[in-house]
Structure formats: structure tokens, C-alpha cells
Amino acid sequence: MADVTINRSTLKRGALAASSGLLSGYTALAVAELIASFVRPQAGPVTAVGGAAIDRTPAPVKDFAIRHFGTNDKLVLQLGILTALGFLALLLGLFALRHRRAGAAGVLAFGLLGAAAALGRPDASGAADALPSLIGAAAGSVVLYGLVGRLRESPAGPRGAVGRLDRRGFLVAAGATVLAATGAGALGRTLSGRRGQGAVASRAAVRLPAPASPAAPVPARAALRIPGISAFTTPNADFYRVDTALVVPKVDADGWRLRLHGKGVGRPRTYSYQELLGRDLIERDVTLTCVSNEVGGPYVGNARWLGVPLADLLREAGVRPPSRGGPADQLVARSVDGMTLGSPVEDVMDGRDAMLAVGMNGEPLPFEHGFPVRMVVPGLYGYVSACKWIQDIELTTFDAYDPYWVKRKWARRAPIKTQARIDTPKPFARPPADTTVMVGGVAWAQHRGIQAVEVRIDDGPWQRADLADQDTVDTWRQWSLPWKTTPGGHTLTVRATDGAGLLQTDRRTQTIPDGASGWHSVFVTPG
Description:
Blueprint: H1 2-39, H2 45-56, H3 59-69, H4 73-98, H5 100-119, H6 131-149, H7 164-195, H8 197-204, E1 257-262, E2 269-272, H9 273-277, E3 282-289, E4 300-309, H10 310-316, E5 330-335, E6 340-344, H11 345-348, E7 355-360, E8 363-364, E9 374-376, E10 390-396, E11 419-424, E12 436-444, E13 450-457, E14 462-464, E15 466-467, E16 477-484, E17 490-498, E18 520-524
Parallel strand pairs: 1-10
Antiparallel strand pairs: 1-2, 3-4, 4-7, 5-6, 5-10, 7-8, 7-9, 11-12, 12-16, 13-14, 13-17, 15-16, 17-18
Helix pairs in contact: 1-4, 1-6, 1-7, 2-4, 2-5, 4-5, 5-6
């Protein structure tokens, strides 16, 4: 019976030690969040480690995450980090039961890793970024050392036993730890939220001026009234978001500045937000596409953008495109979170409506889409053009500098490929047999336009689809085709021809290194 009692007592002690590890980790993260609210939210350990993980993740893995988790990829990453930390904290608690000081030191070691990750981020603001991880780990270490100490053998009890008073004391200490850590975390979240209030207020105060060059009205037949087809203009709330920011930057427009400098810039400038709003603005409908968009994928959207013509700013600074003897062939845009994107200077200055956008669908840019200012360049995939939260533009050369994605084996130049997508019927749909249903969707070839869309049923002949009116060559184009269904399984395939008369290739390629290609198809079973 004594052996059974000892074994049960040992199991209880082990379970409580594991709980001590989890409470230690919880305390460390909560205190770190509180400290990060005084430093900056991006310096928190989960955000810093997550950012470091994103930076070091191979491009195919990153593309897999975007493809399968979409805009929830960051949430999945953060949950994965928390799960891993929880498991490691549990092991540290068990280890500390026998090696109390070493276990507490292990918590400090994880704090050092978090601090290194924070200091190594491209947007690191200085040594203070290490404080959340270090102070949080110190608090967690103290908690682990103290809680495990209450699980040590009672001098009067048998070896391995946990005295009743020790267990009660442990529970009291653990409960106090939970309350204190929860309070620290809640206070940290509250203070972090208040840090962004200035940015929220600055956005709320923005009154976008009327454009000097307004967009032409969208043709009445540019938007087909066919259920299931994507809306011609994508609402801001539905517009895709693909970036590496685990914490959406909230930039105060009043303090925001944009620096323009670099090779071939004769007159470097720094602009404020109000200076940009005071210039002649253009308003344009432009469809954006993410390079991670698979054939038939959702990462494409059309919006009405308001902004400053980028070519005008460059010319005023003395910049010339390479075709006119300019020494710089790459424009590197830097975001407040350290992201760098490289665009061909020739494309930005070739007459297309490249802009520094301040408005999206009639309102200031949402924070998720780059407030206060972002880049928009028709015809280029986002990773080489659509810098959100931009704060710096440097003129350089492709030979001299590789931006973020190029360092990860994506192509330096990436014009958007011609694509067509079937929006309706959906894959594996079961429309009624022997009836006419509308097959429809969108096609895009920004800066070239769409000349034709064709649909094939199984291995039959290609049929010309009806095209909606074209808004501009920089927007997608809706299409439709009536189809008389027959019973059984059928494969519907679509392809497009761009404004230059070039047929979309049927060659299937992955998104890496310069965008997916191939024909989109869906399988349906009328019956």
C-alpha cells in the first residue's frame, strides 16, 4: 500500500509540476504583452518569433499556408507558436521538479530567444524591443521556481509524498498567479489598444479631397446581374489581404512621413500626408492580384483607388526611367514593418496609373490595406508593387539590391498573367438537368485588357462567352455563357485572350516564382 501511495503522490506531483510550467509560460506571455504595450506591440515575443518564422519559412511552405488557410494563415501560425510554447512549458515544469534552478533558467533561455527574434526584425526600433521577452521570461522564471518549490517533499512525510499543506499552498499560489497574469495581460491589451487610438482618430479625421482626374463612370453593363459572379467592385471588407504582418500597423497620419531618395534622385524629398492630399489626385479603377493566387483562386479584387500619380513625384525629384538614360531601374518601397518590395522604374513611369493611394472605394485606406498610404501599380503582382504602410522609396538597381521576396526565390519582375475564373456554378455543384444554367465568372489581364473568353464543356468545342462591357484595361471583366445541362458529370473549362490577342496558356505552373498559369475548370453533376 505504501508503494501505491507513493506512486499516486508522484503522479500528482508530476501533474502539478506540469501545471507549474504552463502557468510559468502563461505568466511570461502575459507580462511580455504588458511590457510590449509600453514599448510597441510588435515587440511582443509571439509576434517577434512569428515574424522570424515567416521570414525563415521556405517559399513553398509559405505558399501552401496561404493556399490552404488564406487570410487566416497568421492566426494558424500564432496558434501553432502558442501550442509549441505550451508543450515546452509543460516539459520545463516536469524538468524543474528535479532540477529547480535549471528549469527556471530554461524559461530565461526562451526569453533570450524571443529577445533575439525581436531585435532581428527588419522594423526593430532598438534595444527596447528586447524588454518584453526578457522581463516576461524573468517573471515566468520566478513563477516556475516558486511553484515547484511548493511541491518539494515534506520533511515529515514519506519520500515522494506531497503534504496536504504543500498542495493547498500550491493551489493558492497558482490561483494568485493566474489572477495576476490575467490582469497583466488584460492591462497590456488595453494599453496596446490605446496606443493605436491616435492612428484611429487620425484616419477618422481624414476628409479625402475630390480628385483632379476622376475615374470615368463604370459602364452599366460592366457588372452582369448573374447570381454567383463576383461583384465588379470588391467591397473593402471582402478585399483579399495577403502580407506578413502579424500585427496590423496602425500609423498616425499626422506623424507619417514618406522619404524619396536614391540613385538618380536629383532632389530628394520628404512628404507628409497632408502634402500628398494637397496635390492633384487621380481616381482609377484597378484590379489587384496576389502572386500566391492559384488558378481559379480568390486572391484578386477590384477597387476604386484615389491617389497621387507616382510618376509625377519621381519626375519632380529628377528621376528618369532607364529608357531615357536614368541610372536606376528598380524602385524599392519600404513599409513601416520592414517589408521591402521592388518595382521596375520603367513600368512605374511608362504612363500607366501607378499611384500612392490614399483612398479605397470612397474612404481612406483601411488599416488592413495600408493606411495612410500604399502603392498601386496596374499590371504588376502585389509582391513587386503593392507596398502597404509605405514610408520610404529608394531608387536603386536590380543588381544592387534584392527585396524581401526576391531573397526568397521569387522572380524580380512579375507582370500579371492572363487568367479566367469560373465563379458559377461552383465545383461539384448539382444543377438541374435538362435546363439552361448560366456559367459565369471574371477574367483579368491588367494593363492589357480582356479581348475574349471561351468556355469548353468536357472535350467539346470552345464556345465564345458573352463579355460584359470593359471598364478599363486595368480592371477585370465579367463574362457569361448559357449552358443547356445534360445528366451526368461534366467538366467546364475556361480560357481568356488578352487585349493584345495573346491566348492564355494551358500550361499549368505553380505560383512560384512569378505566378500560376493554366486553365481553370470545375466539375459539376447535373441531375
